[in-house]
Amino acid sequence: MTFDNLPCQGNDQGYGPWDYTHADERKKIPVVEQHHFTTPVENHIKGQEGRLEEDLDYTLRAVPNHHRALLSIIRYQIKFNRNLLLKKAPLISPVECYLQRAIHFSPRDAGTVSLYAYYLKETGQKNKADDYYQKALTIAPDNAKIAYSYSLLLVELQQYEKAMEYAKKAYANKKAPPALKNKLIKLGYWKEPVDK
What we know:
By secondary structure, this protein is mainly α. The chain is built from eleven helices and no strands. It has helices at 23-26, 30-35, 39-42, 52-62, 67-81, 95-105, 110-122, 126-139, 144-156, 160-171, 179-186. The longest helix has 15 residues, at 67-81. The relative contact order is 0.09.
């Protein structure tokens, strides 16, 4: 269902569907990326085989849980909503429909669940985002990227103690960006120096 409680609709299935997280099926994905999910498409510069929105739609019909393509449509919609696109054309289907389809297609894919949480956060639905981040972390409890994103949401929700818990998990791998830690330092929750 869309955020307006309308049924999700879209184009007919073509090539695929293939699972982005399944090693055997990933071998079939490069043909989609070469023809429909090129760098200019991913970065919203221009379409490859047709209109930009059509290439994004084709990619996500062929590979419903393609993480980079899902993130790309989320960013596209955010730019669209903020009038930041040079050519303003709506997506074929609402972003939430692509994300729900991805989750239904591959329910154990924590990446798609966390991307849906991110989109919910960006559209102001922070309590629902909280639920989806928790679901993603149930699937992948040691995923530092998801812990990082969830901790950022918790800071926005002013749940600082819980944010610290997930921030510690995020920084355990030593690769997380410093922004979250810096926020928690400013708030007086993270006590050690940024560059330790």
